[in-house]
Structure formats: C-alpha cells, structure tokens
Amino acid sequence: MGEQILDNSSLIVGLDIGTTNVKAVVADASSDQLRIIGSASVPTAGMDHGNIVDIDQTANAISTVLANVEEKTNTKINRIVTGIPVSMLQLENARGVVNVSDVAREINDEDVQRVTANALSAGAHDGREVITFLPLKFRVDNEDKIIDPRKMIGMSLEVRGILLTAPKAALHNIKKAIERAGYVNNFFVAAPLAVAEVALDEGERKFGTILLDIGGGQTTATIIRDSKITYATVDLEAGDDLTRDISTVLNTSLAEAEKVKIDFAVADPTKAKADNQVPVSVVGKESPSQITEDYLAEIVYARLEQILSRIGRGLDSHNAFDLPGGIVITGGTSALPGLDQLIADTYQVNARVYTPDQMGLRDARYATGYGIVNYAYNLHDIDFLVNSVVNSNTLRVAPNSQINNELDNSKFFKRLQPSSESKTKEDYNSNKARMNNARVHETAEKQNKVPNQPNKIKKRRVKDLLKKFFD
Q: Secretion signal: which residues (predicted)?
C-alpha cells in the first residue's frame, strides 16, 4: 500500500515565474505556525525580461516545478498564489463609498464587498487589470481609521486604499500558462510586498528601505515605506547579461560562461586576486585556457557598473539613499561574492543580501516564493474578503453564511484581527447608538516624501579594453 498523500486543504503554494527559472515554495498552514515543507526550481526558456514570450514553454516549466515539489513533499497541489513583478505594476489611490441603510444598522460582509467594488471601478482602465486592492482604512459615518468595519453600526461606509494593476495581456499569458500546466491561480501578490514581508523588519518597512532584486533577466529597485511601494525602477539587464559578457569576451559557450560565473566570479575587481587562475573551455581549443580571477571580475564589474548607474539615477532622484533602511539585495545574482559591499560602496549606503534561513530555502532564488507564502498566510480576514471581490469577474453578493463558509475553507489565507480591534468596534458601536445623523467627509491623500538631499553615486574606473563589449 503506497504512502498516503498529505491533505492539500492547508497548503500554501507560492509560484515565482522568473526570466531564468520558475520557483515554487510549499508551506503547511495547518498549525499556528507556518511550516515550509518543500521547494523546487527549474529553468524555463519561455520568458524574456520578466515577460512570457512562449506560453507552452512557460507552462511546461510550471508543470515541472510543481510536479517536482509535489513529489518531494508527497502532496497534491491544486491552487497556487503567484507573484507579479514590480515591472508590471502601477499603483494608484482608490476610494469607494456606499450607503449601508437609511437607518443605521450593523455592517456585514456584503457591505464590504459593495464598497470594495465601488473602489475597484477606479482601476478599470483600458488595457489594465486590478490584481489586488490594499485597503488602508475604512470610514463608518464620521468614524475614521477603521481596520475592519464589520459588525459596526452605521448608515454609510467608505474605504480608501491602493489599487495595484497590471497589463491585461501580460496577466492573460500568466493565467493561461498556469492553466495549461494544469493548475488554478488563487490570487496574485505584488512580488516586492511579498519579499518585504520576510526580508525587512518592521522598522525597515515603516521608515524606508530599498529592495534591489537582481535576477536573471532584469534588475528592479523598489522603495518600501510605511509598508507600501512608493517608487520602483526597472533595468532590463541582470545576471544573464553578465553570463553573455563572459561568453563574448572569453569566446566560450553560454553554458560554460554561466558555470564560470557561478564558480569563480566576484563582483569587485579590487577584491579579486591576480595570481588566482580560472580554467575556461574556449571554442576551438582542446585544452582549457587560463585567465586570472581579477580579469574575470573586470568583465563582470563592467556590466554591473552600468546597471547600478542606471538604477541609481532613479533612486537618487527620489532621495532613496537617505532612507534609514539602506538597501536589501535579493534575486539569484545576489549570490555573487562581494556584491553587497560593491553596492554599499557605489551608493554609499548600508547594504546586505537577504537569503531565507528556512531549511531547504537557503538560496536567494527562493526569496520571492518564500515571501509569497508568508504574505498569503498573514492576510487578515478583511483583506481576504476585499480581494475576493478583486478575483471575481463580477461582484457576486452571496449570503453571509456562504461567505463565511468560503472564508472558513480558506482560513490559512487570513489571520484573526487583533483583540484591540474588537475593543475599538465595541467602543465605536456604543457611541453610534447615540448618533442619529452621519456625513461622509472626503479628505485629500498626501504622498510621503523623503527629504530632498542630493546624493552622488560613486564612480569607478573600468578598463577601456572591456568597454567595447558593453556599450
């Protein structure tokens, strides 16, 4: 008799579709603490700079990676949560208002769904689709800054939050690839918010930090402040370009160049040793050629300097280098030795590499997948309810009992509200019992701004000999 397959009702599966590899992380949420039980990564040829260019090839990679992780964990995966890269995202403020009743009554799930649908209408732009809505606060009549309005008494309900949208065509390709792989996407998560969940501490998320993701196909820098994305910039060069440069300069295959990069390359030429020899299989030669470690580092650094210079200009224009959290580096290329110190020297800020410390995940490639499962696990009940509207083609107002059943069946996607929040509701309802009228006051939203202080990016010299390969 075969080994029993684990029940999948408590599994959270995070899918990270990268340019070079597709990664999956599986966690068990059946207990009070999230437990990582497996991960896998497979190459894909269906992506280009973060976008799907071949649905079938991407679907094959998704199918393979999820089959691998199913085998490793002895589970059967049905639904997944997928990360969306910041390069696809647009953010905008959104507001929705609905009348609850002509006579004050208790607010329920249906009211929250209606006001959410009202706010979502602001994101119905041509060519873009809402992937998630982040409610910042609710307002019941005159009472403001409410986290969860349900069971409060009121006549009107307002929500303010942030809409994250992505191109419809790109989302269609992702959904189609997942569907062809034989799986269902439960919902989307903005990848930087997911990574911030695990890579940054509370102070870094609140006061401001740069998340620098150097992957295979692109490099992204995202400012996280007050736990929100406030700015992002994308450069369409990354780790794959380092590999191509090595291949071109040393006249070797891409496979050999990738191996040389992983095994021998360092980010900073000043930290490399001239007397260390690196063997390279050169096209047309029977025996490997020998190059010095510092020469290899110069090849790698020439491209890195260009990437960091371009990314740095956008960050500098937003005074990002003055943020107290500095830079936290993620992505597969972050494993390059000396990269953190190079970035710290280039931008004159504190910099560190984030790698998950969970058993089986101690690889920078899994930062996004690990962040996705944590983000999903820590969703509050109200967040889950709000985004159930986002993930419906039309607003379907279900009886409360049906909504509650749906929430109960997906309880691993939400956390219970703090007890202090329940106390706030009790106090508010006591006050509402003495109120006869209500008016909704619209307030202007102001964006957070960091102090405007110039910050110069450190310049470094590169050998003229290598410049011709990268311009």
A: none
